[in-house]
Design goal:
Rossmann fold, TIM Barrel, 2 domains, six-stranded parallel beta sheet, 19 helices, 16 strands, 16% strand, binds cobalamin
Length: 449
């Protein structure tokens, strides 16, 4: 049996980082432990001293897994996280002093730049996508992987995903909820690549799961009960889009409602389509805290350009349903998409002014261009270039257009801080231009067909 350390690089203390509960490596821990391996999680929120004290690495490990969640800091004004990941890993490897360890990298941020990070972090194996099955195979025969040239491997689905009940470490959950009372513990309900075609989104590459599986409802409820019974009241369903399969989402919400766990609050990323009144009614009184949707723009042409699979009519209908059932919608927008103009900003802001209440808007400026996305291809930038925080080029007037067209009732401190950070941060960032319009290309393909 192998001795495995799983290091949560996402918990490093570094500018612009706000660590969240690491459910990805918690899943891997549980799977490896059920295989009989000895597994320890190294988390710097739990053990801040270990960020600089590397003595633990010299205590006989066979495999060290390193997880990278976010590639960039949340605060756009801060420097990239990547140099911090590299520095920590290098120091740890130096401290290991040539010990016979298989170094493996993974995680959502890692998956986007797997080849580049595998090389830069001097890893034996870099994993794209889900990690539990591949880590299980690697740890079952560490010798077979040792000594081979470093390589990138694609993760495989977890065959027991449907019925596996996660038992997260209560100590680790306590660490994360004590740091931030608004923290939510992540719970997966489904595994499937998102069917929507948003041009900026890399989910299909990160999840590597087109087949997809839905959790068995009794297992899901058992997991939620476990979190609840351990004293935690806030959860986040981590599916890319919670209601992408509306029938299943309804079953989940009905089951959560039927459990009637006092004080339980939950949230998730939703889509306004599919979303109907029956679903809104189920959501009401289920403990749902916020119904987050991300139309990104509310200008029809811009929504088409960034590949949204719904339009402003669906957003309007969604808001009507929320109002009718006393739900709390939150509409997330990103200004600065390809070919954004004063007119598209004005149209978006007009929709906001007409349809949203003051606390329902989340506004960001600037699209981070990621590899493995249509937007990445639209700019022609290489993966190596995109490792540096890189944004879609936009007219610097965008900030002014927002202030000119958005009702002042939306100008909260949070929104002003976001915009100020973007204004300063984006000046220092690499930018890339769209080489063509995705919407026009799609239209031409349809016309030819
Ligand atoms: C749910 C979610 C959130 C929720 C999380 C809720 C919660 N409490 O858990 C919330 C809303 C808080 C959130 C916020 C943000 N998120 Co988010 N989020 C997601 C989402 C949709 C799912 C993540 C998840 O939990 N999946 C389920 C777990 C089980 O999977 P996992 O962590 O990926 O782990 C698996 C594999 O990665 C792998 N693996 C993981 N570690 C390791 C280690 C090894 C060694 C190996 C081999 C494998 C491996 O195996 C695991 C099991 O299969 C992803 C997109 C996606 N489809 O993955 C984005 C994603 C992770 N988020 C992202 C970002 C950018 C953010 C924000 C910065 C957005 C913002 N501007 O505010 C913030 C940052 C939050 C923070 N403080 O760190 C990016 C990160 C990559 C990047 N671009 O840098 C993603 C990929 C989306 C994207 N746009 O690209 N997010």
């Amino acid at each position: 049996m192998a001795r495995v350390a799983l290091v949560n690089l996402a918990s490093l203390r570094m500018p612009g980082n706000q660590p969240i509960f690491p459910l990805g490596i918690e899943r891997i821990r549980q799977v490896l432990q059920s295989d009989g391996h000895e597994v320890e999680i190294i988390d710097f929120c739990q053990r801040p001293d270990l960020q600089t004290d590397h003595a633990w690495i010299r205590t006989g490990w066979d495999v060290v897994g390193l997880t990278i969640r976010n590639i960039d800091p949340i605060d756009i004004a801060c420097e990239s996280h990547v140099p911090h990941y590299l520095e920590y890993t290098r120091n740890l490897q130096d401290a290991a002093d040539g010990a016979d360890i298989l170094w493996v990298g993974g995680g959502p941020g890692f998956s986007l730049f797997a080849a580049e990070l595998t090389e830069a972090m001097r890893l034996s194996i870099g994993v794209v996508g889900p990690g539990e099955t591949l880590m299980s195979r690697i740890c079952a025969d560490v010798g077979a992987h040792a000594g081979s040239p470093s390589r990138v491997m694609t993760g495989a689905p977890d065959p027991r995903f449907e019925t596996r009940v996660m038992q997260y470490s209560p100590e680790l959950m306590e660490v994360y909820t004590a740091r931030d009372p608004s923290a939510m513990i992540g719970v997966e309900t489904r595994r499937k690549s998102c069917y929507q075609g948003c041009t900026y989104c890399p989910y299909a590459h990160i999840t590597q799961d087109d087949g997809g599986t839905c959790r068995a409802i009794p297992s899901l409820i058992e997991e939620i009960r476990g979190i609840y019974d351990a004293g935690f009241r806030r959860i986040f369903f981590t599916d890319g889009i919670f209601n992408a399969e509306l029938r299943f989402a309804k079953q989940v919400v009905a089951a959560v409602k039927a459990e009637a766990l006092p004080g339980l609050q939950w949230s998730a990323y939703f889509t306004p389509k599919p979303f109907d009144d029956e679903f809104a009614e189920l959501l009401s009184g289920s403990g749902n805290d916020t119904v987050i949707v991300s139309p990104d723009s509310l200008d029809p042409a811009m929504m088409n350009e960034i590949g949204k699979s719904f339009d402003v009519r669906h957003v309007r209908r969604f808001l009507d349903s929320c109002r009718a059932h006393a739900l709390n919608p939150r509409v997330s927008l990103v200004i600065g998409g390809p070919f954004e103009s004063e007119q598209t900003v004005a149209n978006t802001m007009a929709f906001v002014n007409d349809h949203l209440r003051d606390n329902e808007l989340a506004l960001n400026v600037g699209y981070r261009v990621l590899p493995e996305t249509a937007m990445g291809r639209q700019t022609g930038a290489t993966t190596a270039e995109l490792l540096e925080p890189t944004f879609m080029e936009m007219d610097p007037q965008v900030f002014q257009w927002i202030f000119d067209h958005l009702d002042s009732r939306f100008l909260t401190t949070e929104l002003m801080l976001n915009i100020t950070a973007a204004k300063h941060g984006l000046k220092r960032r690499n930018t890339v231009k769209p080489k063509f319009s995705v919407a026009r290309k799609r239209q031409m393909r349809l016309t030819v067909a």
